[in-house]
Amino acid sequence: MDTWTRRKFLVTSGVTAGAALAAGAGAWGVDELLATGSGTPDGEASTLVLVTLYGGNDGLNTLVPAADPHYQDLRGDLAYAEDEVLPLGEGLGLNPGLKNLKKLWDDKHLAVVRGVSYPKPDHSHFRSMAIWQTASPAGPVPSGWLGRWLDRAGDGDPLKGVSVGATLPPLMAGTKTAGAAVRLGGKPLPDAWQRACEELSHQDEDAHPLLRRAATSLGDLRQVSRSFDAKSDSTSGGKDEEDEDGATEGNEGGSAGAESALGAQLDVVARAIEAGVSTRAYSVSLGGFDTHANEKGTQSRLLAGLDRDLGGFLTRVRRTAAGRKVVVAVYSEFGRRPKDNANQGTDHGTAGPLFVLGEPVRGGFHGEQPALDDLTDDDLRTTTDFRAVYATLLREVLGTDPGAVLDGYDKTLAFL
C-alpha cells in the first residue's frame, strides 16, 4: 500500500508546478474576502464546486446494490441489507448516511454517474489521483485540467479558480497561470516573502518568455495574498490540526492529504459566492477514505459528514440567483474491490460512482452499473470514462470547449 501524503502526491503528480505547490505557494487565510467581489452576486454565471474524496471511497457501500446476491456474498459483514439503504430504484440505494442526497434525488437534482474510472485503471493512490487531476490517462502532462481551463480563460484573474486548503492541488495548475490556494485559519504570507514576490514580479520586456511567465505568476500570488488575507482561527470551523504531511488526527481511514473540515471549506465558498467574487471554479476536499480496516463505521461517519455539509451548503447558496447556478461534483480517485478483506475493510479497486448535484442538474442515473458477476481481475469494470463528466462540466458550467482542455475528448453526458 502507498504511503499516501499530500506533499508526495504534489511532487510526483507530473505537474510542472508540483514542487512549488507542495512548498505551500499560494495565499493563506481568509480575510477581506468581500473586498474581492462586486458586492452583488452574478446571477448569470455558473459556478463549479469540485469535491475530492481522498483515499479511494468505497463506491459499493456508497451506491449500494443491496438487492444483488453477489454483493451480499462478496461483502459479508460489510454488506448493507436492503432495508438499511435509501432506495433509488434499479436495485440500488444510497448509504444510510446520505439523507440529504436522497432528498436531492427525490427532487431530481442529484445525478448518479455509475462505473466511473479511466482506461487501464491503476491501484496506486498517486498515479490514479494524478490521472484524475490532470485528465490524462495516457501519461503525465505538466498541467491540471482546471489549470488548462484557466489558461484558456486568459484574463489574468488569479481568483478565477480557488482551492480552499493548505496547498494548491495540481488540478488547478496551468502552464501559463494557476488558481489561488486559500488556507483556513492560517497566516498570510510573511512580509519578506510578499516583498520578494513584488520585486520579482516586475517584468523586463526583453526577458525570456519563461521568466516573464514566472514574473506574472509571482504578481498573481501577491495579488491573491492581498485579497485573501489572514483571518482568526474561528473561520476554521473546528478544523483538526494537520501534520506536515497533511494527515489528520483521529481519522481512522487515513486522511490522504485533504483538509478535514469540509463544512468550513464550503462556508468560504458560500461567502465568496454571496460576495460576488470572480471565482468560477472551487476545489474543496475531504480525506479519510483509505479504508483497509474497520471500514463500515469509518465510511459511514465520513459519508454522513459529507452529506450534512453538502446539504447545508446547497440550502444556503439557493438563497441567491448565483447560488442557484452552482453545480457540485463529488469524486474519488478510485473505488474499492468488491470482495472484502480479512480486516473488515476493502482494498484499492477501480470504478465507482460520481455524484453531481445542484439546482441545474438533471437528476437520475447516468452510465451502466458495473456487474458483480462480470469482474476484470477481481475488479469492477469501467462503464463511464471520467472525462465525459469533465467534458460536461467544462461545456455546460464553465462555458468552454472541452476538446481544447481534454486533448480532443469532447463526449458529454446528459446530467446538465
From TrEMBL:
Signal sequence coordinates: 1-22
Q: Does the keyword Signal apply?
A: yes
Q: Which InterPro entries match?
A: DUF1501, TAT_signal
UniProt keywords (A-Z) are: Signal
Region (Disordered), start-end ranges = 223-259
**Domain of life (superkingdom):** Bacteria
Xref: PROSITE patterns: TAT (PS51318)
Any Pfam family from its record, for instance, is DUF1501
Q: What is this protein called?
A: DUF1501 domain-containing protein
* Organism of derivation: Streptomyces evansiae
Upper taxonomic classification of the species?
A: Bacteria, Bacillati, Actinomycetota, Actinomycetes, Kitasatosporales
